[in-house]
Design brief:
Number of strands of chain A: 4
Mean pLDDT of chain A: 88
Order of helices and strands of chain B: HEHEHEHEHEHEHEHEHEHEHHHEEEE
CATH topology of the largest domain in chain B: Rossmann fold
Number of helices of chain A: 11
Helix content of chain A: over 70%
Order of helices and strands of chain A: HHHHEEEHHHHEHHH
Largest interface: A-B, 36 and 30 residues
Number of strands of chain B: 14
Oligomer: heterodimer
Shape of chain B: globular
CATH architecture of chain A: Orthogonal Bundle
CATH superfamily of the largest domain in chain B: Response regulator
Strand content of chain A: under 5%
Strand content of chain B: 15-25%
Number of domains of chain A: 1
Radius of gyration of chain A: 19 Å
Shape of chain A: globular
Low-confidence stretches of chain B: 10-22
CATH class of chain A: Mainly Alpha
Largest sheet of chain B: 7 strands, mixed
Number of domains of chain B: 2
Strand order of the largest sheet of chain B: 7-6-8-9-10-13-14
């Protein structure tokens, strides 16, 4: 068993899990408030990665490499993804807000494919994979029998901070209270004087910004980006969100780490079956707890 | 005047359409296919350049069968489904008499049955998986095949690098890396070495750490990676992060400038088997490198050389056949004996050329010629 589960594999699983967590947070938040499974979320993440790439080469000459540059790149990546998310909300999702839920779902898939093909067609981006710059120099540490890079620490820290921040925002602020109200009953919320569209916009902006941060971190951790990079992590983050209980913020993070670890252990047990085993585990969990690990009982169907 | 214009304008338009359909001198239509976009994009770009350069040279010499050669080139995007579409399009819409391409084995395997059923001779430039030419007697290739490449990689690892243990990683969703990994394992074991880990990964993944952790813990003398450059670069980086300091060896899928761009220092001191080296001293190679540099202002990689060779082999067969008929060209191809950039080409009974391989080392971010291995 030592060859399958050891310190190094746990580190590997946690790193993969934190990337999934960052995507899953935005996924679950949008679902929790708008009740929309936003399949384009993985593509907002891709947009963030490319925005970070562009921002790095624009500002590299002026800011040098290091903390200030990393901060500027992070802000721009988050802003770009937030802008795309808001644009998708306004143009594609808003007109279908009070139409059958299946229409928005299909539209979300459409937005996803549109972004992928648009980015492949843009001459400055194009369909070919490209390397991602090392925005913060990578350092390796040996802890016990495991090799840990500073990126693992950064990924896990950012995922944890954003999770706590988001939970506080939703539980403690007026905006959060309004978000919870909208998620429970849009009409009642409107009667209470809440501008529902404004709250939904805020939700997409925050969710998009999270995807942007995830895109930057994924680009740094696995330095190869291309327009289709969001598909697989997007699907896995969605499953992580379902596993944790969709709509539940800590659940998304828990689900993401379980996904990351399960995938890593399964792959190290048998790389040829690999991810197949990880998905079997997920199906088993959902058989026992259909609403996810931390999900509340609800009559809603996905 | 107005009346004159009202008659002349439609007349010119109709005439123009007529001319563009059937007018002009007769041409020989040649199809070309390569992955200009997608995961093997640099392969496609080089392939297109190689084919275009060869066609241009033949046209300067008067073309073939007394006609100029018109090239119809299509992008297969490195995708088998797209490949099947473009092969069909070249044959049905463009009406080509022969096809040069494509690069990736999985895509050639999608195109070959189409060429076979329409009896259009096809020569793959760089698909090294043995199954490609097994499709039928109209399918040839300009490159050596993976059993030979895997053998060369294993022998080089065992003898030159003195590796006694090896760990292997490859893409399970792709015919080329999968086949090559297996041929390497067979030969390396046969030589007396042991393969301590044999790990697959999913197509399109960016995280290889679970497999690599297992591999590095088995303490292999060498890691053999049969993937394409894009994955190799990430695998090399992650293997180094996990503390692997030994050499890595791979196949011709590594041959791209992107390997060092994405891989950086992690790919230093790695080796791969290839079809040709630009540092070869044979006159035909020197001549090719000089002409390619003059035309494209870059060094030709093996993909460009193979595409150039494949085009020459195909056009030479058309010339020998003396007709654009598929069956005649196919027979002429089978009896090819031609000196080209990547060696002397003669086809065996399975329409595979028997020729040499070179070992390339990555040194200081550059590809450096190490040695030539004969079959």
């Amino acid at each position: 068993m030592d060859s399958v589960i050891n310190a190094q594999q746990i580190v590997n699983g946690l790193q993969l899990g934190s990337i999934y967590a960052l995507i899953a947070l935005g996924y679950t938040m949008v679902y929790g408030i708008v009740r929309l499974i936003n399949f384009a979320h993985g593509d907002f993440y891709m947009v963030g990665a490319f925005a970070a790439y562009g921002a790095f080469y624009l500002f590299n000459a002026y800011l040098g490499s290091g903390g200030v540059l990393a901060f500027v790149v992070l802000i721009l990546a988050m802003a770009a993804s937030a802008a795309i998310a808001q644009l998708a909300n306004r143009l594609a999702y808003k007109p279908l807000r009070y139409k059958p839920r299946l229409s928005s779902l299909v539209t979300a898939i459409g937005v996803s494919m549109f972004l992928e093909y648009l980015f492949s067609a843009l001459p400055v981006i194009g369909p070919n994979p490209r390397g991602f710059p090392e925005i913060i120099p990578k350092r390796m540490f040996t802890v016990g029998s495991a090799e840990i890079s500073n990126y693992v620490v950064i990924d896990i820290t950012v995922a944890a901070v954003l999770m706590v921040g988001l939970t506080l925002l939703i539980r403690r602020t007026a905006l959060g209270k309004a978000m919870r109200a909208v998620s429970q009953d849009k009409d009642a919320a409107r009667l209470m004087g809440i501008d529902v569209e404004k709250i939904i916009s805020a939700t997409f902006l925050i969710g998009g910004a999270f995807a942007g941060a995830a895109g930057l971190l994924a680009g740094m951790t696995y330095p190869r980006i291309q327009p289709y990079m969001g598909i697989l992590p997007g699907i896995k983050a969605f499953i992580a969100a379902v596993l944790g209980g969709i709509g539940n913020i800590p659940g998304a993070v828990l689900g993401a780490y379980i996904m990351g670890l399960a995938e890593t252990f399964a792959t190290s047990y048998n790389s040829l079956l690999g991810e197949g085993i990880a998905f079997v585990i997920l199906i088993l969990v959902l058989l026992v707890r259909p609403t996810g690990l931390l999900g509340e009982k609800t009559a809603d169907k996905i | 005047m107005k009346r004159f214009a009202s008659i002349m304008v439609p007349a010119v338009i109709v005439g123009g359409i007529f001319l563009s359909c059937s007018g002009g001198p007769p041409v020989f239509k040649l199809g070309g296919v390569g992955p200009v976009t997608g995961e093997a994009a640099t392969f496609g770009a080089s392939t297109k350049q190689g084919i275009e350069m060869a066609v241009a040279e033949w046209n300067v010499q008067g073309g073939v069968l007394g006609k100029q050669i018109r090239l119809a080139f299509a992008d297969d995007k490195g995708d088998p489904a797209e490949g099947a579409t473009v092969y069909t399009k070249l044959i049905q819409q463009d009406g080509v008499s022969a096809i040069v391409g494509t690069v990736m084995s999985k895509v050639s395997l999608a195109g070959a049955p189409i060429c076979q059923s329409y009896k259009i001779p096809m020569i793959s430039t760089a698909s090294t998986n043995p199954k490609v030419t097994d499709v039928g007697d109209y399918i040839f290739r300009a490159c050596f095949i993976d059993p030979f490449q895997g053998t060369v990689g294993a022998a080089f690892s065992y003898s030159d690098l003195q590796a006694k243990t090896a760990a292997v990683i490859f893409d399970v969703g792709n015919d080329y890396p999968k086949g090559l990994a297996e041929f390497f394992r067979t030969k390396f074991t046969e030589l007396g070495g042991s393969v301590v880990a044999f790990e697959g990964h999913a197509t399109g993944t960016t995280d290889f750490k679970a497999q690599l952790t297992k591999m590095v813990r088995a303490e292999p003398d060498v890691i053999y990676c049969s993937d394409y450059y894009n994955d190799v670069a990430l695998i090399a980086r992650q293997a180094r992060e996990l503390g692997f300091k030994g050499p890595m060896v791979g196949g011709d899928g590594w041959d791209s400038p992107e390997l060092t761009k994405i891989g950086g220092a992690a790919v230093e001191g790695t080796f791969f088997t290839n079809h040709y080296s630009k540092d070869d001293i044979r006159p035909i190679v020197k001549d090719f490198v000089a002409k390619f540099k003059a035309k494209y202002n870059a060094d030709p990689d093996a993909l460009a050389a193979l595409a150039y060779d494949a085009t020459y082999i195909m056009l030479n067969a058309v010339k020998t056949a003396g007709t654009a008929d598929g069956a005649a060209i196919k027979n002429a191809l089978a009896s090819t004996d031609l000196e080209v950039v990547s060696g002397r080409v003669k086809f065996d009974a399975n329409r595979n050329p028997v020729k040499s391989a070179v070992i390339i080392e990555i040194k200081g971010g550059e590809q450096v010629y190490r040695t030539t291995v004969y079959p």
